[in-house]
């Protein structure tokens, strides 16, 4: 299992357009990917799940990936977080 | 017989056309037990695939006809179609309970709708509409009914609907859709925002349009007044055709003023600027011919989050505004929090009189570290444009000096560490407390400019809460007491060769503009939608004529007298 923390710097938090791209980019991965915020965890491949958390700007989130391609999944998340300006 | 309904004015202008009821088909579902859960699940998959095909077409249409951001709504809808947390539970219900796909879908989706609607964030509440929109589309395919599509309309119509889904609104073609009326929704709902972008007159939240308007009857939509007239009489129809003509003429005239300077009949030039709350508001100001930013409220950076914005985040926001303004004067107001605006993470103690308490510059001088972060971000951004900084709620010279000292200290530190900083940053203050207006002559020697904040200046001068409707007789911009203070501030600035601006609502008030022009105000800052009207107004006024009337105006004894004198003398 791989685990990583991010601090969301996008001023609109994790609920605008970039979130769709983030969630959409995870579909090809077979690993289970979980996003944890405020003691709640959701399936990160679910747009409704991720949006339902209402992650605000400045919040720290934890992402966990578990499965055959867990490292690649986290690398993808890193890439999208950076390219979409969601987290530094 | 003519009937009238009043709703919320969502998008200005007048539309007259035949009504087209956009009815969403009955998608009522019943719970049915199915024998073959496997086959039912496959039926769901087919409906999803069909819905996906449709959504892809709509997304393509949106990106070609509208903007990328409109198209992105449908990218999100497509993700919802594939959402494992939506589709998974539906299939699970079909399998374990042997129920039909319609019922399983409805039950699961309703859970998400309720979840989003219960959130206290406007943006998240709107997401409930997205879930409904997507669910409806799948449901229609399951039931084999066709959803009415506004894109198919090929004659001039006014759409009457209970609500317009995001996928309805992006299909509105302004060539045919003259206007729309919905029963629900508010000024910030998706359909209202899009109507303004497309410049289609619209009234939302009418509550009873669907109940009262039949297909094919003539309807007038007055999107400026928020009124809908059903089956108008000949006289009403004529009156509104004339109104529509005037509106179009006025719009065309205003558009011609976008790139014109702001000049009175007798050649006196002033600056018309815009008030903004975030970098994304700049475009609207420029489209409407704003010559500068007279007030950038920086609170948005601090609100709706759970910790302070970092220096870099703030720097990016200020830089973005300055770059978009391309060297035009840009006044940024430092944090104005407290009073009615709270920050949960700041843990401010509750005060008995928050409007007379620790807010704005008082708070910034108390929480100096927080203030320094903002000033550093501003200083770093200053090289990207023409930055002017102003401090809110200054009551005494000492406060201004202290704020300025912190600013100079941060400036020096940055320069010493080799960070480039503009050397032409101007430092000014808001004049919104009577004590500052009364001492304006002394302030004028130390500040680079004044910006009069009339909303607070009136409230503090009259000791009347502007939110209290029973005190609205006291909250009068035309009160001679307020006007005398404004005049003192402008005169004091001019004696020291400084600039006096105004960024309260009064600056964009067409009735107040003649008086302000006559008193010699240099810069008027207002919301984007008021700029062109103000420019047209000023073009029709003579500064010297108004100036000659000021002494008399200031000798009048009530706001009513001032108002009627100004109206009569124009």
Automatic annotation (TrEMBL), chain A:
Keyword Lipid biosynthesis tagged: no
Keyword Cytoplasm: yes
UniProt superkingdom: Bacteria
Gene Ontology annotations of biological process type: phosphoenolpyruvate-dependent sugar phosphotransferase system
GO annotation, cellular component aspect: cytoplasm
Main location (coarse class): cytoplasm
Subcellular location, record wording: Cytoplasm
Domain HPr: 1-88
Gene3D superfamilies xrefs: HPr-like (3.30.1340.10)
Purpose of the protein: General (non sugar-specific) component of the phosphoenolpyruvate-dependent sugar phosphotransferase system (sugar PTS). This major carbohydrate active-transport system catalyzes the phosphorylation of incoming sugar substrates concomitantly with their translocation across the cell membrane. The phosphoryl group from phosphoenolpyruvate (PEP) is transferred to the phosphoryl carrier protein HPr by enzyme I. Phospho-HPr then transfers it to the PTS EIIA domain.
Protein name: Phosphocarrier protein HPr
From TrEMBL, chain B:
Gene3D superfamilies to which the protein is assigned, alphabetical: Phosphoenolpyruvate-binding domains, Phosphohistidine domain, PtsI, HPr-binding domain
Subcellular locations according to the entry: Cytoplasm
Pfam families membership: PEP-utilisers_N, PEP-utilizers, PEP-utilizers_C
Positions of the Phosphotransferase system enzyme I N-terminal domain: 6-127
Domain PEP-utilising enzyme C-terminal: start-end pairs: 252-540
Gene Ontology terms: cellular component: cytoplasm
Cofactor: Mg(2+)
Stored InterPro entries: PEP-util_enz_mobile_dom (IPR008279), PEP-utilizing_PTS_enzyme (IPR050499), PEP_util_AS (IPR018274), PEP_util_C (IPR000121), PEP_util_CS (IPR023151), Phosphohistidine_dom_sf (IPR036637), PTS_EI (IPR024692), PTS_EI-like (IPR006318)
Catalysed conversion reaction: L-histidyl-[protein] + phosphoenolpyruvate = N(pros)-phospho-L-histidyl-[protein] + pyruvate
Catalytic-site annotation from UniProt: 190, 503
Keywords, ordered alphabetically: Cytoplasm, Kinase, Magnesium, Metal-binding, Phosphotransferase system, Pyruvate, Sugar transport, Transferase, Transport
E.C. designation(s): 2.7.3.9
Binding positions (Mg(2+)): 432, 456
GO molecular function per UniProt: kinase activity; metal ion binding; phosphoenolpyruvate-protein phosphotransferase activity
Domain of life: Bacteria
Segments forming domain PEP-utilising enzyme mobile: 154-226
Chief location of this protein within or outside the cell: cytoplasm
Keyword Metal-binding annotated: yes
GO biological process, any: phosphoenolpyruvate-dependent sugar phosphotransferase system
UniProt: phosphoenolpyruvate binding residues: 297, 333, 455-456, 466
Protein family per UniProt: Belongs to the PEP-utilizing enzyme family.
Role according to the record: General (non sugar-specific) component of the phosphoenolpyruvate-dependent sugar phosphotransferase system (sugar PTS). This major carbohydrate active-transport system catalyzes the phosphorylation of incoming sugar substrates concomitantly with their translocation across the cell membrane. Enzyme I transfers the phosphoryl group from phosphoenolpyruvate (PEP) to the phosphoryl carrier protein (HPr).
NCBIfam families: PTS_I_fam
Protein name: Phosphoenolpyruvate-protein phosphotransferase
